[in-house]
């Protein structure tokens, strides 16, 4: 069941040549979720990466905050056609987390608290392309926007930036996640308008 909030359904602005095709500019931060919003206490939150060798590396909230935290200024684009330019985030780069992870697999399934999943090629998480985001606009992430932590992959449609992230599982093949099983594109490049199958 989808939960839709203010700003999700309207066309809030004029076309902008800086936007991917079919997108409109919004000043809001619309919310679409595949179910109820989980509320996870930071004392209970944990992030993990499971490899093809079935090894598991985990980070607590405090351990994640002990790693280098970066400022990320980026545009974000939702498959429902809104775009928000110049957003400001803070988070830990996936390059930092994968620095000690050994894997031969090329794909990842992201898992969220609440059961949501989405698939991403590993190459799209590395090279300064993705983060575990902890803050938006200078404050801790609200639960409705994926707090306490969400995946942030701004070069793909925003459904790939899984809210309430709890872990990544390495995979040898590109298996579909929640929205991908329900007709969304397997990759989701906004500049190629890869919205649906």
Automatic annotation (TrEMBL):
Domain Oxidoreductase molybdopterin-binding positions: 35-179
Q: Pfam families this protein is in?
A: Oxidored_molyb
Q: Which domain of life does the UniProt lineage start with?
A: Bacteria
State the residue spans of region: Disordered: 1-20
Identify the InterPro entries for this entry. Answer: OxRdtase_Mopterin-bd_dom, OxRdtase_Mopterin-bd_sf
PANTHER family, per this entry? OXIDOREDUCTASE MOLYBDOPTERIN-BINDING DOMAIN-CONTAINING PROTEIN, PROTEIN-METHIONINE-SULFOXIDE REDUCTASE
Q: What is this protein called?
A: Sulfite oxidase-like oxidoreductase
Q: Which organism is it from?
A: Cryobacterium gelidum
């Amino acid at each position: 069941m989808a939960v839709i909030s203010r700003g999700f359904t309207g066309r809030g602005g004029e076309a902008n040549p800086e936007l991917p095709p079919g997108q409109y500019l919004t000043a809001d931060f619309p919310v679409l979720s595949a179910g109820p919003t989980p509320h996870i206490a930071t004392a209970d939150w944990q992030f993990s990466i499971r490899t093809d060798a079935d090894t598991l590396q985990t980070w607590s909230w405090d351990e994640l905050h002990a790693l280098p935290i970066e400022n990320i200024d980026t545009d974000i684009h939702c498959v429902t056609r809104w775009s928000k330019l110049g957003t400001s985030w803070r988070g830990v780069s996936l390059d930092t987390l994968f620095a000690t992870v050994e894997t031969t697999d090329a794909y990842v399934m992201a898992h969220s608290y609440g059961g949501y999943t989405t698939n991403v090629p590993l190459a799209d998480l590395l090279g300064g392309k993705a983060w575990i985001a902890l803050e938006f606009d200078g404050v801790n992430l609200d639960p409705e926007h994926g707090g306490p932590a969400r995946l942030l992959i701004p070069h793909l449609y925003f459904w790939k930036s899984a809210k309430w992230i709890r872990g990544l599982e390495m995979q040898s093949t590109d298996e579909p996640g929640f929205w991908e099983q329900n007709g969304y594109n397997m990759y989701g490049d906004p500049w190629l308008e890869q919205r649906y199958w």
